[in-house]
Amino acid sequence: MDMTTSAESLLVAARRLISDYAYAIDNGEISRWPAFFTDPCSYRITTRENEAMQMPLSIMLCDSQAMLYDRVEAIERANIFEPHYYRHMLADTRILKRRPRGVTAETGFLCVRTMLDGAMNVFAAGRYLDDILVQGDDCLFRSRTVILDSSQVDTLIAIPL
Amino acid sequence: MDMTTSAESLLVAARRLISDYAYAIDNGEISRWPAFFTDPCSYRITTRENEAMQMPLSIMLCDSQAMLYDRVEAIERANIFEPHYYRHMLADTRILKRRPRGVTAETGFLCVRTMLDGAMNVFAAGRYLDDILVQGDDCLFRSRTVILDSSQVDTLIAIPL
Amino acid sequence: MDMTTSAESLLVAARRLISDYAYAIDNGEISRWPAFFTDPCSYRITTRENEAMQMPLSIMLCDSQAMLYDRVEAIERANIFEPHYYRHMLADTRILKRRPRGVTAETGFLCVRTMLDGAMNVFAAGRYLDDILVQGDDCLFRSRTVILDSSQVDTLIAIPL
Fold this sequence. Notes:
Helix content of chain A: 10-25%
Number of strands of chain A: 6
Order of helices and strands of chain A: HEHEHEEEE
Radius of gyration of chain A: 16 Å
Largest sheet of chain A: 6 strands, mixed
Low-confidence stretches of chain A: none
Oligomer: homotrimer
Strand order of the largest sheet of chain A: 2-1-6-5-4-3
Shape of chain A: globular
């Protein structure tokens, strides 16, 4: 990242990563999921309650490409039995901090799940806290923390959020 | 469309059309609906499953202004009996292809329905696949395909999505 | 506001206010809520039905900083007994009118509520009608009207929308 990169272009680049990630999942391209992260990386799902108490508890934690790919494989097997679709909606992305070669950003989200029998429900709501590596137009998640509003979470979160 | 039109201004113009369309429906201005399309046109509602199998099945299909206006008339009659409101939320719009005098774009959406008795539910989720004619600041849908995540659809979709 | 301020920069400034307001509420910073308004101000919750009939009925009405702060205090007391979280999603903001030192803007929204037991539901949908004071990069609500799609509203709306 050029030190002269404008705040606006940083926001546009970070937002495109965040939006592309959601489309990849929603459009069923789960195998592309790991490619959104650096290696090593941090992908973590936690709850608002844990986060507020600064508890390190995680519902899910992956810290390398290998772990992300393991997860993809598990999902692809699981999906044979119980297919369902996600649809993410994103709030505006806010840049919280500029960092060397990147930004820390916050993005509210909700996720609607559609089951094969047609049942639809709001499955998850919360916010992403992201540390994003920006290299020119290319962005990757160094760290993505999914902070769920609910503390009662389906223990089996098949598809990544 | 000037061949030198920037990608960014194309996206802004396309997004305004997509957003205005949603507001027209959500604000109850159904009679304005046909004016968002060219004539002839294509307005089609299908399911993700049909689309993935490249099946030409449609839940709804209109290919001219006349058909769109017939639809409006039917809705205005139907609404006398069972009024309800829609509220669309849109994901970021992505330009998939630049075309002569326009773009192909993709936009995730969800739609919440509020019934007169106050019941609210997520009524539909999916994505729009649009072929948009861009003429300066004016845009129109040459073709809009609504691809629903659910295969179990209310057979009576009164208001257009 | 400089009379030469571009329509685009006005929209960006207004949108930031509207987005920041939603994040303040969703992130639990209710005590910051009054600071988004001028003094005097107007904060009003009404229904689509009332608005269409031009009825002045309000579900909630505050017209000064003092009233907003009273509301915050009531919420903070109430939350001891029944905590829950909101998550707002916003449609694109549309500028309806440029005014002296500001704009009138419209923004569709929906709000998901998560209860402590994990129950999640779409709690409210509708649109904001805002009269926004723009002073350089600083924006404040002179007036915010929350127009709910539903006429059947929880009489106890604890957290502001």
